[in-house]
Amino acid sequence: MNRVACSLLALALAAAPAFALAADPNPVGLKAGVFDPPQPAADFPAGVHATDHGDLALARWHGKVVLLLFGFTHCPAVCPTTLATLAQARKLLGPDASATQVVYVTVDPERDDLAHVRRYLAAFDPSFVGGTGEPAVLAQLRKRYGATAQKIPAAGGGADYGMSHSTTIWLIDRDGRLRALMPFGHSAEDFAHDVRQLIALK
Amino acid sequence: MNKGLAASLGLAVAATAVAGWAAFAPLSVASRDEPFEIPKGTYARRMAGDKVEILPNRIDLTLGLNDQLLLRNLDDVPQQFGPVLVMPGQSFRLPFEKASTYGFDCTAHASGQMTVVVAEAPATPWERIAWRWDRLWRKTRA
C-alpha cells in the first residue's frame, strides 16, 4: 500500500509543471511545419526550363508567395490531388490569389517535356508554372530543397514505370525566404489560411 | 487506533486522492512540443563510422497535448528530416492535427526510417492515468 501511495504522489509531483499555461510555439500561426529562423530559399540552378517562358527562378516571383512542389504528370494520385487542392485554394483566396504562384517541377523529365507539363497544369489552373530540364539539373534542385525522387520499374518490365517522390509543398514568402513545408493531405482551406498568413507578414 | 494503522489509513486516503486527480483532472501541458536535437558533430561522427541514432524509430504524440514535433539541428551541416532539410542552427516545428501513423524517410536516422504515431487525446479516466504515468516514466528515464 505504502509503495503504491508513494508512486502516485510522485506522479502528482512530476506532473505538476504540466499545469502551466501553454505558450504559443507557432507565432506565425501556420498549419504547415515552420522553419525557425526562416532562411533564404535555395536558388534554382540554371537550366530548369519554365512552361511559361525562360528558366525557373525565384526572383521572378519576388513579392508573391510561392508554393513549390515536385511531381510527375503520370502520377496516379498524389500530384492530381495536390494540384486540385492548390487550384481550389487559389479560388478561396479571391483577390489574394494574385499574390501567389504555384510552381511544379517534374521529377520525370524523360516523359515530361515542357509542352506536356504545360497542358497538364492548365487542366488545374492556367496560372500554374511548371519546370523541367536535364535529369542532373533537376536532381540538383531537389537536393537543395531536400526533395527526393526515385524511379519505380513497371511490374513485369513494361514501359509504364512509376516515380516515388516527395509529396510535400514548400512555402516561400514574398521575400524569398523558405518559411514552411506543408505535408501531403492538407485541405485547400489550410493552404488558403497559410498563404494569407504569409501575405500578411511584414 | 495504533500509529501504524493510522499511517496506513492516511496513505490510503492520499493514494486515493492522487488516483482520483490523475483520473479526472483535465490534462494540460506547458508546451505542445516534442523536441529532438541533432547535436553538433553528428555528421563528423557518422563520417567517422559511428552509427549515431538521434531520433527513435518511433515517436508517440498525443493530439492537443504533445502534438508538435520539434527538430533542432545543432550540427554544422544541413540535416534531412523526412522531406525536410533543416539548416545548421535552424529548427523545424511540424504540427499534427489528425490521429494517425505517419512514416518518414530520415537520413538523420541510421536506419533511414522513422514513424510518428499520433494518438487521440485521452478521453477516459484510465487513459488519463496511463498518459500521466507514461510522462512520469519518460521524465525519470531522461
Question: How does this model look, in words?
Answer:
- The complex is a heterodimer of chains A (202) and B (142).
- Chain A is of the alpha+beta class and 202 residues long.
- Chain A has helices at residues 2-14, 78-93, 114-122, 135-145, 188-200, and strands spanning 33-40, 48-50, 65-71, 100-106, 129-133, 149-152, 162-165, 169-172, 177-182.
- The longest helix of chain A is centred in the middle third of the chain and has 16 residues, at 78-93.
- Residues 11-25 of chain A have low confidence and may be disordered.
- Chain B has one domain (3-141): Immunoglobulin-like, CATH 2.60.40.420.
- Chain B has helices at 3-24, 42-47, 125-141; strands at 33-38, 58-62, 68-73, 79-81, 84-86, 91-95, 100-105, 113-119.
- The mean pLDDT of chain B is 84.
- In chain B, the strands form three sheets. A three-stranded mixed beta sheet of chain B has the order 1-3-6, with no helix packed on it.
- Chain B has 142 residues and is α/β, with parallel strands linked by helices.
